[in-house]
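S1.2 Input.
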Amino acid sequence: MRPEEAADPPQGLVLVSTPIGNLADMTPRAREVLRNSDVILCEDTRHSARLLAGIGAHARTEPLHEYNEDSRIAPVLGMLRAGKRIALISDAGTPLVSDPGYRLVRAAIAAGLPVTGVPGPNAAVLALVLSGLPPQPFLFLGFPPPRQAARRSAFGALRAAERAGLSATLIWHEAPHRLPEMIADLQATFGDRQAAVARELTKRFEEVRRDSLSALAAAYAATPARGELTVLVGPPEQDDPEDLDGRLRAALATQSVRDAAATVATATGLPRKLVYARALELAEQE
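S1.3 Output.
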């Protein structure tokens, strides 16, 4: 029997993981699959051109991104039915993870066409194992909403899930210019937990900062972040219950009862009526 590395290139649609920064992380199998593909679907053909030229992959490239994926599904399925070998890559890392391709994969599976993959680099998992936070379970959430109201609502829903029993390291990607606001919202929602920010993984200026959310906020206020970022927050401490009264008292120091209740309810994910009733009680005690 031939060794696995000498096997024929896979048929059908192949999801190929590519380096997240250091081009030396390209696996031999990924190189072979891309060299033997008939068509390579790229999130950005211009971005991927350097990588493909460097490994000697000369197949035709076609764009497949967020805005054209639906229109590309039928033509790609037609090529697959005709026996073409098609590879799908993103700009970096593992396809579909915060990248396009999910709708195509679902359509190929529904059509009974072969779908396989070549594993490789993934920024979220690398950041997790470097963070010093519990590695499992973990929950990867992609990019948080860019607008503050939606972001706080999403964080509040996660905090509510924690009260229902969720206990996992939480992972997001984020853009550098939004990092200070994101960290502030994380601290307001989850408290001053242990966290980490991984920057430029596998690249020359790789950095992983591990500290409390308050310390990370101060650090990035002094020196703004650059490059590609992954943000991680540790799970809740089992012996550190939510201090609702403390949050409300802090909010009541500067806000009306109604506004303080709304702020804390959004941050914690607790029902607004419950939080408002407790805010009234605390205000009356004061």
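S1.4 Remarks. Residues 194 and 270 are 22 Å apart (CA to CA).
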